[in-house]
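User: Some background: our group keeps a shared notebook of sequences we're curious about, and every so often someone picks one and asks for a predicted structure to add to the entry. Today it's my turn. The entry only has the sequence so far, pasted here. Could you supply the structure so I can complete it?
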Amino acid sequence: MTTIVWAPGDLIVASNEGIDVRLAGVSLVRDVPEHLGATGGERGVRIGLEAPRNLETQRRDIAHLQEVEAWVAEQKLHGKGKAGPPPTMPGQAVLSAVKADITDNHDTVYRCVAGRWAGTGTEWDGSWTFLPEPPAGVKHLTIEFTGNGELTGKSCRVQLD
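Assistant: Of course. Here's the predicted structure to add to the notebook entry:
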């Protein structure tokens, strides 16, 4: 279990393309899939993000629906596979530009082994999964955030229970 010890009061850790990105949680997980660079049963750290809904996210959702309708029409006209890939979910471009760097007092090197951004029903949330599991004796994780490769100046500290 984790407890956020300090973080921005509104949990906004980055902004991208005029859309705020909020920390949605930090947890220790046991379900890191083996095909993502983990061995079976390995534990890691998952950091969740979300974009608070606003007029800009609604505008992008409407534009995305129009793009999907055009893509479906193109498939009907020219056949499946001829229309190219489906349009990118609007949250994917916004959220995937925000990254995290985890540190602890043991100088553990955490590596991101998986990321999930947007998808049907989760258009404006995502997560990263990092390995390894924090070693015994680590009491806190510090997480700093970047947007498009630049530090955002936002960070949080998480206590491990």
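Suggested note for the entry: Residues 103 and 109 are 7 Å apart (CA to CA). Helices lie at 55-78, 90-96.
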